[in-house]
Amino acid sequence: MSENAAVKQKKFSWTDEVPFEILRLFTAIVVALLISFLVLCFVSDNPVNDFVSLLTYPFKSPFYFSYVLVKMIPLVFAGLATLLYFRASLFNLGTEGVFYISGVFMTFFAVNPLTGIGIIDQIICIAVAALAGGLISLLPGFLKAKWNADVMVISLMMNNILFGVGLWIVRTFLQPAGVSGNSSEYFADSVRLTRIWTGTQVTTGIIIALVMVALVWVLLYKTKLGYQLRMTGSNARFAAYSGMSAFGLMLLIHFISGAIAGMGSAVELLGNYQRFSWSTLPGLGFTGALMAMMGKNNPIGATIAAFGISYLRASAQLLANTSPVIDVKMISIVEVILTLLISSQYFLRSWRNKQMIKEKGGE
After folding, report:
1. Is 238 contained in some domain?
2. The domain containing residue 214 runs over which residues?
3. Exposed e or buried b for every residue in 62-91, given b needs 16+ CB within 10 A?
4. What is the mean pLDDT of residues 31-50?
5. What phi and psi values does residue 109 have, to the nearest 5 degrees?
6. Mean pLDDT in residue range 150-174
């Protein structure tokens, strides 16, 4: 009797936490893609062919696939930065502002390298961007820890403020004379990241991104700080009773997340740009939140999500040159739908509850 009970307890069920989250994510993706297909039905003469092309185009050549990896890098950093906030129950959307201003500060050292030695100048630029991002991110952390201010509101306001300040710095100190727009001087050759895939734009930035995924995973699941962060997110009151310093932890979380965002900015600029030329925010605030939510605030999950979204973005952008109906705006529809479905606390919950009642009724 006890053996039967043990077998029954180990029986697979879609209502268990992990299978249910996988099912919910898969269903959200399918629904988003189906809606995209429906949109194609209205605007395309051959929607089936266009839809298949959207899902398969990057595999047509190594160069096309490499473009997916290039677009994936900033999404990985945005996802890592945001999931640390979410782990601590902080809905901070300030990643794009930190990305922008960190890139501005890094540009000073990218334009005027200190040593002329490639690896050293690259490390200096990335470290400067990380430090700038971490220090700037301390402000919303301090306001939250000191006066329990709303982090989401502060982060959204800071995005515009940091963009304005960064734009002023670029125009005042970085833009060379006689150049129109909002561009700096060209980056020195020594600071540009090395390409590791011949004939493509894939640089050592992809390696740095994957190393950061591993480090954040170790931080979350193999260190005392990671345990404190997860405890604070799941039960802030319990964390306080356990003797954790909420004030110091809040500042540390913001510093680490900001440093990751700043690092991502440097990797993106040094890998794919000749000079700083961002005239708008990079749009990684809500995208980072989508990566974190799709990946269930797990570094590996967020990386997989970043690959999926960058795959669709790259495919749409490549097809835009030949297709009159497919462009990046269509993928924006997919991302918005995914965000709405995944962020909904009640998505598939009613189905799960009914199934759990049935399973318990059959015992």
Report:
1. yes
2. 17-361
3. eeebbbbbbbbbbbbbbbbbbbbbbbbebe
4. 84
5. -85, -20
6. 95
Count other C-beta atoms under 10 Å from residue 201's C-beta.
15
3-class SS string, 240-275: HHCCCCHHHHHHHHHHHHHHHHHHHHHHHHHHHCCE
**What whole-number distance in Å separates Cα of residue 298 and Cα of residue 295?**
6
Q: CA angle at residue 208 from 205 to 209, to 5 degrees? A: 85
Question: With contact defined as beta carbons under 8 Å apart, do 13 and 359 qualify?
Answer: yes
Give the number of other Cβ atoms within 10 Å of residue 200's Cβ: 16
5 found inside a domain: no
Confidence (pTM): 0.88
Q: Tokens representing 192?
A: 């540009």
Collect all residues with Cβ–Cβ distance below 8 Å to 166 and sequence separation of at least 6. 100, 101, 103, 104
Number of domains in the chain: 1
Backbone angles phi, psi at 350, to 5 degrees: -65, -40
Residue 203 φ then ψ, to 5°? -115, -175
Q: What is the CATH number of the domain that holds 197?
A: 1.10.3470
pLDDT reading at 315 higher than 50:
yes
Spell out a b/e string for 35-51, using b for 16 or more CB atoms within 10 Å of the CB, else e: ebeebbeeebeebeebb
Of 60, 75, 55, 62, the C-alpha closest to 315 is 55
Inside any domain, residue 146: yes
Q: Kindly give, in sequence order, each residue whose CB lies less than 8 Å from that of residue 174, ignoring residues fewer than 6 positions away.
A: 104, 107, 108, 111, 184, 185, 276
pLDDT at 161: 97
User: What mean pLDDT comes out for the span 58-68?
Assistant: 93
